[in-house]
Design brief:
By secondary structure, the chain is of the alpha/beta class. It contains 14 helices and twelve strands. The structure holds guanosine-5'-triphosphate and magnesium ion.
């Protein structure tokens, strides 16, 4: 699963990428610093892993990860090839969720491509480019479907109607995710087209250091502007957090964070938010060799969860032995959980719950 970072040029996208990932992207004070996309794998911070580590004392601990893609800045006309153009929109289409970075800090030394600080205007600029790109997709598809619809093909007529409502919505400046279409049609006709504005979005307000703990009026404006979008809004002092990332030791970084009034980096909050946005959750395996977080889509069954470890586990699935995270912590070890009769044996239909500690029985 991937999340893509979008925004105007020079708003701090690559700086954010650098806070999140160990892969280093070039960031500099000029628009279009990024040309080729930067891709990084990011650990998902999870305090439950630390608790399990204390109890189990394993040789190693492996957290869950998500992939983050940092692309070039978009400008007005990007959908028509303006700026660095269409190729970047292709990179976004391949992602599963969008982190939309909005500049919410004043600093005369950092160039703003549109000359002033106005996150709402910036958001609309980006939204419009993404919507225009999706409109292109709709129109192409509509051309094909129209012909089939004319011949009386019922399915094509249904699809044509859906495409027309997408077209009308997009032309009126509505993102695909907000256009009202029934669930079945969405699944059948909308999902396969991978619309950029259909992906879940989180707005990331890049604030200055003074606003690191409580935000600022720009953030409030953003919140108000997207109130009916059912989207997450978070704020983060991206530049400051990038400086903290540069510090050598954990202690130094903690001290810096405490000075700012933060108990953990905003980037940790952001990654957990992105994980949720991607509709993902975590189950654990806990043994002396390793304690590990595994990523599954919310609603996955036990065999599907087993398949994340190995396809053989899914094919040959017999049963799962499951301990809820709360029971594991309460009783303190697998043996004690068993003694207390709190270990469950679950079959193929079991829907895995976030935090379950699992063993799989299978044969191949
Ligand atoms: N004052 C301040 N400067 C920042 C902040 N975040 C980023 N910058 C600076 O803004 C400039 C642009 O940052 P980048 O991360 O390269 O911006 P970008 O969005 O990736 O830009 P493009 O790749 O050109 O689209 C750099 O000089 C950063 O150091 C911030 O929170 N505060
Ligand atoms: Mg960049």
């Amino acid at each position: 699963m991937k999340a893509g970072i979008v925004g105007l040029p020079n708003v701090g996208k690559s700086t954010l990428f650098n806070c999140l990932s160990n892969a280093k992207a070039q960031s500099a004070n000029f628009p279009f610093c990024t040309i080729e996309p930067n891709i990084g794998v990011v650990n998902v911070p999870d305090s439950r892993l630390e608790k399990l580590e204390e109890l189990v004392n394993p040789e190693r601990v492996l957290p869950a990860t998500v992939e983050i893609v940092d692309i070039a800045g978009l400008v007005k006309g990007a959908s028509k090839g303006e700026g660095l153009g269409n190729q970047f929109l292709g990179n976004i289409r391949e992602t599963d969720a969008i982190l939309h970075v909005l500049r919410c800090f004043d600093d005369d030394n950092i160039v703003h491509v549109d000359g002033s600080i106005d996150p709402i205007r910036d958001k609309e600029t980006i939204d419009m480019e993404l919507q225009l790109k999706d409109l292109e997709t709709v129109e192409k598809k509509l051309d094909k479907v129209k012909r089939a619809a004319k011949t009386g093909n019922k399915e094509a007529q249904k699809e044509e109607a859906v495409l027309l409502s997408l077209k009308n919505g997009l032309e009126a400046g509505t993102s695909v995710r907000a256009i009202s279409i029934d669930d079945d049609s969405r699944k059948e006709f909308v999902k396969p087209l991978q619309f950029i504005t259909d992906k879940p979005v989180m707005y990331v307000c890049n604030v200055d250091e003074a606003a690191a703990t409580s935000g600022n009026t720009y953030v409030e404006q953003v919140r108000a502007a997207v109130a009916n979008e059912n989207a997450e809004v978070i704020f983060l002092a991206v530049g400051t957090e990038a400086d903290i990332t540069e510090l050598d030791t954990y202690e130094e970084r903690q001290m810096f964070l405490e000075d700012l009034g933060l108990s953990e980096p905003g980037s940790a909050v952001l990654i957990r938010g992105a994980y949720k946005l991607l509709n993902l959750e975590t189950y654990f395996t806990a043994g002396v060799k390793e304690v590990r977080a595994w990523t599954i889509p919310i609603g996955a069954t036990a065999p599907q969860a087993a398949g994340v470890i190995h396809t053989d586990f899914e094919k040959g699935f017999i049963r799962a032995e499951v301990i809820s995270y709360a029971d594991y912590i309460h009783f303190g070890s697998e043996a004690k959980v068993k003694e207390a009769g709190k270990m469950r044996v679950e079959g193929k239909e079991y829907i895995v719950k976030d935090g379950d500690v699992m063993h799989f029985r299978f044969n191949v």
